[in-house]
Please model this.
Amino acid sequence: MGRDGAAFTGATEAVLHLHRAANAVRQHVEQEVLRPRQLTWTGFVVLRTVWAARRIETRHVAEQAGISKATLTGVVDTLSGRGLVKRANHPDDGRLVLLQLTRKGHRLIRELLPDSQTAESFALSYLEPAELARITTALRGLVDHLERSR
Model:
């Protein structure tokens, strides 16, 4: 196998392990933190995204959460039905919808964040701090590289 074949194999293996690692962390957080509160990973990501922005257009939530607008609609319907988020019309463009957390949503995210951070820390606790810093930098760089290439 030539040099290009070896690089392709290494990249493919890295992507496979990246995917498996992300899923393993996700499953750990879901089992330890989210399931007991009847919340999915996607619901949590949406709540966290809305919480961080305070008030945000649905299209930006979908983009930041890495989900389709159709998926977001279902997730927001569920979260809204539980009284965690509310929709509002955009003040400048009636076609756009804004999301924000309700008081109940704020209470839940304040409960979830410390627990999710503990679960995430446990998942990565086998890494030395320097390794964790290198991986974080590398992953940030990977995302930046791919976003610039769009």
Q: What stands out?
A: The mean pLDDT is 93. The first strand starts at residue 56 and ends at 57. The chain has six helices and three strands.
